[in-house]
Every structure is written in structure tokens, then in C-alpha cells.
Amino acid sequence: MRNEYDNEAFFAEYAKMARSREGLSAAGEWHQLEPLFPQLKGKAVLDLGCGYGWHCQFAAGQGAAQVLGIDLSRKMIEEAEKRSQGSGIVYRVCGIEEYEYPEAAWDCVVSNLALHYIEDIGQVFGQIYQTLRPGGVFLLNMEHPVFTAGVGQDWAYNGEGKPLHWPVDNYFVPGERKTRFLGCDVVKQHHTLTQILMGLLDSGFALEAVEEAQPPEEMMALPGMQDELRRPMMLLIRAAVKKSFG
Predict the structure, then answer these.
(1) Which whole-number Å values give the CA distances from 174 to 90, 113, 195, in the listed order?
(2) Number of H helices and number of E strands within the chain?
(3) How many other C-beta atoms lie within 10 A of the C-beta of residue 190?
(4) Strands 90-93 and 106-112
(5) How big, in percent rounded to 5, are the helix, strand and coil portions of the chain?
(6) How far apart are alpha carbons 93 and 75 in whole angstroms?
(7) Residue with the larger pLDDT of the pair 165 and 84
(8) CA-CA distance, 91 to 97, in Å (whole number)?
């Protein structure tokens, strides 16, 4: 799997983003994602595609007994370790598709802005279901299908550089999408809403919440935020495991 996040130029640009500098408080979706978390005190939490480890740190701060963050990018893991010293969080360089998913090992699995890089999300959903304990919760935030189906994942502009509309094409054709992100060529995977939701249901999950991210009122004055109300960029889902053993 390609890993742009270990590209020096890409990583340097990523480090400049507000959410990289300031953490969860600068993430426009956090006001919607945070309330979806279950009670984490004493629980075991797995973060798939942990990046800088912000959600791992949140889980530890909520009293989680065990936290593991995995990421394909060595640079991300190194940065997460720097920011989490003394927290007890364990980080590991490992791809989402390569993780072993031990059976009934975790109470909560989180994946934030990582699954749109995965081609076979149905298989990953099944593995996540297997690794969760009865009553466990899977929280995911991924790029919205309307966003990943965007032509070049960018606006159509007028001659003055003003966004006119968000063009969507080949929505029902899942698979590879090439785009420019932070000055680099990035390959993502487009999945339809049906694939995502039915993939979870077919894996055995019960859907408890489905939300489309909107920036909070306090961020609306930031450049470009008004345009974020013109099309959805992120899809947030809380899914639960209802299985029992024995």
C-alpha cells in the first residue's frame, strides 16, 4: 500500500495543518465525534490509523486501561510517541489491513480519516467486528462518498478563483481516486454510501449513529468554512457489537 505520509515534503505540509498543530480542538468534526464515544474508563481502545495519536491521548485521558495506536506511517508513529510520553499508550507501525485483529480483544475501535485509503473496507469491517468484545463500539470517521467521488476532489472555479460547485462523477464506480493533497499526488479509495453502511450491517454491526460532519458555529468565520456547508466532506458512524459468546 502506498504511504504518502512518510514523504518528507508531504509530512512537512501536514504538520502545518491546524489539526496537526492544535489537536482535536481544531478538528471541525470533533464536536460531533466526541459525543459518539462510549464510556472509556477501564476499557481497551484500538486506534486504526492513529496519526499523531490525538484520539489515543483522548482515550487515555478518559481513563482507558489499554490504548494501542497503529499507523502505516513511521513518521506519524514517531510524532505520536513524542506527544504521548508517559501516557502508557502503545504505538506500532502497522497497516490497517496488516493488523492481526485478535478475537474479542478490544472494547472500542476508532478510525479517523484513514479508511478512505482502504480498498476492501468490507473485509476490514469484518475483522473489526471480530476483534471487538460483546457490547463493543466501532467509531469511524472517513471522507464522505460525495467528497471522494468529487472530480479531482476539488471545486469547479470561475475565472476569479471562486468555487462555483462541487462536481461529482462516477459515483457508483468504486475504487481508486487520484488527487492532489498538500502538494502531493495521493491515491484514495472511493466507496459508495451503500457499500459503507451495508458493509457494516453485513459484518454484524448494529448502526447506532450516522452523521455528516458540519463545522461548528465558532469556526464559521475561518477561511473556506462557509463552503463546507455546500457539500459533505466527512461521514461519522457509530456501530455496536451485539454478539454474545457461549
Answers:
(1) 34, 18, 9
(2) 8, 11
(3) 21
(4) unpaired
(5) 35, 30, 40
(6) 9
(7) 165
(8) 16
Among 32-46, 189-203, 210-224, which is the least confidently predicted range? Answer: 210-224
- Tell me the per-residue pLDDT of 14-33, one tens digit each, with 9 for 90 and over: 666 667 667 788 888 999 99
Instruction: Using the structure block, give the residue that is written with the C-alpha cell 493488523.
Output: 99
**Backbone φ and ψ of 114, nearest 5°:** -130, -30
Summarize pLDDT for 92-137 with one digit per residue, the tens.
999 999 999 999 999 999 999 999 999 999 999 999 999 999 999 9
Alpha carbon distance 72, 11 (integer Å): 13
Residue 234, strand partner residues: 143
Other beta carbons within 10 angstroms of residue 44's beta carbon come to 19
Sequence-ordered strand ranges (E) for 86-228? 90-93, 106-112, 132-143, 156-157, 163-165, 175-181, 184-190, 206-212
Q: Tell me how crowded residue 3 is: count the other CB atoms within 10 A of its CB.
A: 15
Closest CA to 93 of 71, 111, 112: 71
**C-alpha dihedral, 59 to 22 to 26 to 107, nearest 10°:** -10
pTM for the full predicted model: 0.91
